[in-house]
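Box 3.1. Reading complex inputs
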Amino acid sequence: MELADIGKTFRRLDYETKVTGTAQFLADMNVPGMCHGKILRSPYPHARIKSIDTFKAVKVAGVVAVLTRDDIIHDEGIEPYYGPVFKDQTIVAVEKVRHVGDPVAAVAALTIDAAEEALRLIEIEYEELPAVLDVHESLKPGAKLVHDAIKVPMSGFADLAELKPIDGTNICTHFRLNRGDIDKGFAEADHIFEDTFTLPATQHCFLETHACIASVDPGGRITVWATTQNPFVVRTQLANIFKVPVSKVRVIVPYLGGGYGGKVYPKVEPITVALAQKAGRPVRVVLSREEVFYTITKHAAVIRMKTAVKNDGTLVARECEIHLDTGAYAEIGPRVAKKSGYTAAGPYRIANLKIDSYSVYTNKPPAGAFRGFGVSQSAWAVESQMDIIAAALKMDPLELRKKNGYDEGDKFVTEETLRSIGFKQCLDEVARSIAWNDKSFNDSTVQGSIGSNLRRGKGLACMIKATITPSISCAVVKLNEDASLSIYTGTVEMGQGSETVLAQIAGKELGIPLQTIQVLGVDTDVVPYDLTTSSSRSTFHMGKAVQLAAQDIMRQLKQIVANEYGVPQDKIRFAEGKILLPETALDYAEVMFKRFGMQGGTLVGEGQVKTSTKDEFGEKTTSAFWFVAAGAAEVEVDMDTGKFKLIRYATAVDVGKALNPLGCRQQLSGAAITGMGQAMFEEIAYDNGQLINPNLIDYVLPSLGDMPSVIDPIAIEIAHKDGPFGAKGIGESALIPVAPAIANAIYDAVGVRIKDLPIKAEKIYLRLQQGKS
Amino acid sequence: MKKTISLIVNGFQRSAEVEARTTLLDMVREQFGLTGAKLGCDIQVCGACTLLLNGKPVSACSVLAVDADGGDILTVEGLSKNGALHPLQEAFMEFGALQCGYCTSGFLLTAKALLDECPRPSEQQITDYLAGNFCRCGCYQEIMQAVKNVAEKS
């Protein structure tokens, strides 16, 4: 058997079950005695609930339980309010509904049909209220408030402690970043650029919808099978809601059919547990595609950016106001807004800054984490404006970026030192990949080739992003008596290939074959704590924890060999799965036998990674590592219709170390493809607060037919001292530059600057027509 | 109103009692326990529920079980023969044509139908045939490589 290694592609450990259809996802699972849950949702964006009558619903044959506000507000065992930052969500609506699709009641029944029949018979009387449907309306003086009062929990996330809702307004949070002297900066400017950019709400559209199976035993023990990226956060939230210690909540997570940020924090779990508790038997809830759109979205944003620039292209000051539409509930919006604010200067040195980033309540479905987490919003503005500046100054956009861009050791806007930053390497590599300096593409052969009026252009963009800090990842590994290894972690395999990479890391340390390693599924009763599988953090944090756990096993083996064989520890070495002594070599199974005196026993190794807001030199740090990326696009635009085609796309990410190179390329090109959807098609459309496209016909996803002929994923390897084998996170990086790179390429091709996503043919067409008149 | 239907599933004779409105997908998943095909969109656009009915790909979320009466169904669970994986399954693993795996059953079966119909397809034909399946993790390049590789080897 081949020994595990890093920097080498291994067939992923999750593949056999996935290509044979035997991998179990949540909706494939049944629990004995399970019944089916369905949720009744608000038809109004904003309304007071005057009455709820379940009389007819409970009589439907097969109905086991009907859950309404009466069950949660009169039950002393339930805290009805929850939420990761502010406790502004309820299991079902209590006084008001605040967005179309807000859960109002739920039914558990023996069949789905019976549950749906009962939903139809629940009678609710609403009093419609005026609704605020965008950030502009929401911020007007005297605007109707989405929440009259908001419960701020006593303790919450350390990094969000300073952010609070502003009373009497719809402002959920206001993050400020001030640096230098903003007035002086603008006074020094030769040029001032001011633009407003917008992005619409979008949806993750993982093919697996949110689902949950919950079971509550009479002693109050809660078990949930959940489609969640952060099982330990769900455990904490459920423990708070149902007022039990976390040890009484067990969260089991099967493989996820995609997450992309849309499965962090509680989603369908609280309502499923409440329903199971009332039903007195297990309940399964599987959301429909439409319900997913009501459950979580990506923040729409309006970004006003004013930048002061010298004649030579030096950026001297920036004032930026970001308004993120967080919908009816804060969810994790406050942190999204904070991250947008942090990155509003982009990966550039700007001495003078005044940044205000707001999360704003509206009567729309809640917005939360989406791969890119606030930075896809800010980077759309930052990177589009960079090209506006370059065009005005007649500078090469690549040179403008490199002139202002961060180098190793520079100070970030938070005044912390940036280390392991392969930023300019990313830019150079994408430029090389699309032959940036070769402008011969716009010659007559291309224009005349199919007899229409085609123009080609090239554009690039880049980004810098943080990972959630502080955070915790713990890992346990067990060396079994036959020298095989079991790995216990809370990292959720949602497609990113974490199982394989964690096994590679442990296997490399111990020098054992990948085939002898089993990565256990996530079960909070069994695996140690991990904060979350998100924020591009798992390889860096959990990978390191697993590496430390494997090293702990090696330390124990060394101790055993020293004791049992009388060899000094400094004479003991490890190589290729063997323990080398001066005279002989022992394999792990022999050492285990020696230690336990028979074929049996277990060695348990532990690894803990805890990042902090101070680095080893006592300097403030807001991110355990910073990750950078660049993207470059070549497009072809039809001057007559505005229709455009992405010809090729290059994405370069500083990955630190590509542990599994094929897995790395999958993450890079996969994230870039998600970015293409966001750039070119995706947009949740609303009409008076009603979603008009919550389905996969009207909400368009990229398919094979939309792909450019070349996508070139490039891994730059600038090692990070704290990552396992130098590795950094890669999950989100490649998505962020895509939209501005395409917009910049379109400008290069036809001189039309699109400032509002998505970039659609009709927007280009109308601008081209205006140009003619 | 229930109706008893009989059909061949992965080479085995099967019968089932279904409601007139039961979908092929629900029957295969719930009555036969074959959960490889997934419900993704429920309106015949995402391809996650694709099954082969008499050799042709269908969106099982939008086909009635009663309309498959007497038919021959292939699901992803029936792709391997005598413990040997289908060349497409091997190629999907080799080229990394999946990440989360939720769309994989649909892609494999659609690609099989393509290669059965057209053993040496062009890139354009592969694109046209597979454009009705979504991979939200974005493995389109790898899927293209895997299908081309199997076609070239045939």
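In summary: Helices of chain B lie at 24-31, 87-95, 104-117, 123-130, 140-153.
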